[in-house]
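Problem 3 from the worked examples.
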Amino acid sequence: MWAYIIRRILYAIPILIGVNLLTFLLFFVVNTPQDMAVVHLGDRYVTQEAIDRWIVTNGYDKPTFYNPKAQGIDKISDTLFYQQSMRLFTFNFGTSDTGREIGHDISERMWPSLALAIPSLLLGLGLNVMLALLMVLFRGTQIDTWGVTICVALMSISGLFFIITGQYVLAKLFKWVPISGYESGLSAIKFLALPVLVSVIAGIGSGVRWYRTLFLEEINKDYVRTARAKGLSDIAILFKHVLKNALIPILTGVVVLIPSLFLGSLLLESFFAIPGLGSYTIDAIRAQDFAIVRSMVFLGSVLYILGLLLTDISYTLVDPRVRLN
């Protein structure tokens, strides 16, 4: 098992390097520092002196990959790639284009994002799996038919509808929860209740249909027929056998959501004024703060690769045959 884990970690390293290199090329080769300066300064008639000053102030005036004027190791280290890209591997995010410490901002804003994402993920996953199992248990009946119909209807509705409706009905009309905002500590519960509810409801349609499809594929396999021939009830078969054998695709679906645990939901955090990493990224895009955007892209890739690694490890617990691959 340890050999399998080490092999997966070694696979992840070149992927992360490749993502980092591609991100650097997009931000500093395709989109040059001069282009960033013009966009950031936001003036059609900005002078070349102002552009050069902005580039020097933000440290974008160095050679891209190789500095022929430097001595020794500085030929590599005193370059744009090393100082703006390689330092990310040590999670040194540097400062934003406005002078703020990006690492400090991330460490503060990750907690509201986690407070929103973790309950949404756990409640949504549990509810979707239970509803999907219920529909499979009553497959071919009116419960299954109406369940699929409602799921398709929910999938056809934009997430904005759930956000605006929830804010209007629960916050404005009934005044059960605040319409937006955030407070730390236990007071955060009243601010997070509505966005968590919206997140869970908005994901029911696609989630339940996905899990229902997985369970229906398992329900027709030989081991299910064998278990039924031994006299096991349908409920016991679903929970003891079907659910267990469907865990690998379920885990694969969950790993996609792992980056959102830290990076937050861009839409929810923006509409509900939650100071998480999602709104942090949106604000950086609006302000044309390229340093923050680069850092968040790198952080997202790290979290996604970490999620894939954790999923591969969890596969070995669910299905020991994976260890042989």
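Problem 4, a separate protein:
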Amino acid sequence: MIEIKLSQGAKPGHGGVLPGAKVTPEIAEARGVQVGEDCVSPASHPAFSNPRELMNFIVQLRELSHGKPVGFKLCIGDKNEFLAITKAMIETGVTPDFIVVDGAEGGTGAAPLEFTDHIGMPLRDGLNFVHSTLIGIGLREKIKIGAAGKITSAFDMARVMALGADWCNAARGFMFAIGCIQSQSCHTDQCPVGVATQDRLRQRALIVPDKAQRVANFHHNTMHALAEVIGAAGLMHPADIRASQLHRRISPTQTMNFAELYPVMEKGELLTGGADHEMQKNWKMVSADHFTAAA
């Protein structure tokens, strides 16, 4: 697969920055930078500047990779930006093979606190919006959705699948399995347990054969727990779980199921004008030629 990263949850150095302390000769050669200097990824992609060009870039990547699946990853911020991308899908006839929705809560403990707490949409809200929008334009069956953002347990997986995810991306639990203690020093190259460092001395703390088995155990037992959750619900597969089967307490005396909390559009509703007023207004405002909506 080829994933185009448009945006992401909170990361060290605001994301897109590999601090100079971690730029070794090997990394410097691969990234074309100087050893010991910050490696800063550009804030935007030079290959495209609007949604229509993004679709063209997807086509180009498919051709150059001889047919590999191509998609993109984003953390939803301005909803109109994603609506503009979906409008480009309709107008060009090009669809990504997948979209990975990252939550604002995704990332590491070394991310700036303001970004972790306030920048971007939380996973459940972003996932619901993407899932609903793709249904609303009639393209949900053509595009798979991945979900990322503090997914560590079997129930975390069941919950996002109920909200529309086809699969889950997870890192946090596996980091814990190999010994991460959340020292919040990922960006300093001084990780005390040898996980997030290129320091050879500190890396000695990470015993690969031992940690590899722990990671395998974590994965096996988490998937077993997911199977038990799905079985307890009377289902055969995680894909069978529905939003109406999950409930959330919203007051001391009330609960609501996820279908009520996270409603989705009917198939093609956005194209026929049947969506709610706010969505329909935003759909008319966006253009395949601009990421930002018209004033």
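Solution to problem 4. The chain has a mean pLDDT of 91. The beta strands are 2-5, 17-18, 39-40, 70-74, 98-102, 144-148, 167-169, 247-251, 254-257.
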